[in-house]
């Protein structure tokens, strides 16, 4: 029975990429929000 | 004004408006005729294939008409700037829901009866024995569609991309109703008795109870000011 | 708290990978392609958890109008849809070499596909309503309708596929439940549940910050 490692890689790869993209989206929004907060209430 | 009278007032007003303008009714009838013709052009020659596909196409017609009718549930209020009036109405807002539901049901059942009749005539289908069972299935199925449809119509009435969002929200939720009605209709048209599709009928009844209960309980939330 | 969850999740994902590729044996009938199950099953199960949390949070919001509950529902919906989408995709990728087809309309796949579209609609509703409070209310109602619909979907689809149907339905070359497969599966399940919790926690924190920024 052929092992189809390509499919395994595709499945794991897709999952990893999708989760990473979501993670980075969260981080980016957090950075933007932090920048906005700094602008509104500058610390001395 | 008592609860029941308020509900009836809403239904009566909607039906009166519809009777005068006949906008929705005409659109639905025209649409059903279109479906009939397309069905004939694609499958008219092949009697067997036609019979096999008929239940699905029939309910496809019912559902698409339902989308049209239900989507317009609050059209009058929206167009004539009466939406605020709905929000400010005193008392239990679920009376409005029931009124709208009754109006939608009446409209949908009229169109469905018409479509069924037209299909029977133009495709020479003997409805005789199946009719009582069909009536039960169509009633239960339409109630299910209308119950959730009226609720979702309220939710999407004032939302961007309403025409797109409404079917997107309604159809996945209605899959059980669609499956049950199509499979039951299929069996009934093949000559099986209503008892043979008892499980589908029970599912439809259960679905109707759930949908009605949730809608009645949450419609107030949807129409909060 | 979010950070701890994050590190925990990362650690368990690492452990999961080790289990999936190092510890788990090569499956007898399917070969190594069966290892996809160690992401596919946890993704689907974790998404079920997400939707249960969504339903509960929606109920809490409707009763108590607590914005925190709404944020949990929102975040859970996002992560849930992502997980179930990935679950469907990985299942499909597994299915091609195993069943010979990317998709089949059997009971389980059909039900999960309906689930995916339902909750995608939930996210669409969220995205379409600008007013935060109205979005919270409407989505809570939708969340409850969807949750109540799930048993109806399950039964209708199951009956559709099994009644009056020849018994030779394709079934996935499923688990024979040997423990050498069970442990890697459990570890990966814990990993994905922790991932879910981490993402939800982080998203909720972001949502709260967004709400405060507007206030």
Overall description:
The complex is a heterotrimer of chains A (44), B (225) and C (215). Chain A is mostly helical and 44 residues long. Chain A is built from one helix and no strands. Chain A has one helix at residues 5-40. The longest helix of chain A has 36 residues, at 5-40. Chain B is an all-alpha fold and 225 residues long. Chain B contains ten helices and no strands. The model of chain B has no long low-confidence stretch (mean pLDDT 87). Chain B has one domain. Chain C has one domain. Helices cover 80% and strands 0% of the residues of chain C. The two termini of chain C are 25 Å apart. Chain C has helices at residues 2-23, 37-64, 67-99, 107-128, 132-162, 179-214. Chains A and C meet through helix 1 of A and helix 2, helix 3 and helix 6 of C.
Whole-number mean pLDDT of chain A: 86
Order of helices and strands of chain B: HHHHHHHHHH
Number of domains of chain B: 1
Query: Which residues of chain A sit in consecutive blocks of at least 5 with pLDDT less than 50?
Result: none
Largest sheet of chain A: none
Radius of gyration of chain B: 18 Å
Number of strands of chain A: 0
Q: Structural class, judged by helices and strands of chain A? A: mainly alpha
Largest binding interface between chains: B-C, 28 and 27 residues
Helix content of chain B: over 70%
Helix percent of chain A reads over 70%
State the distance separating the first and last CA atoms of chain B: 21 Å
- Bulk shape of chain A: rod-shaped
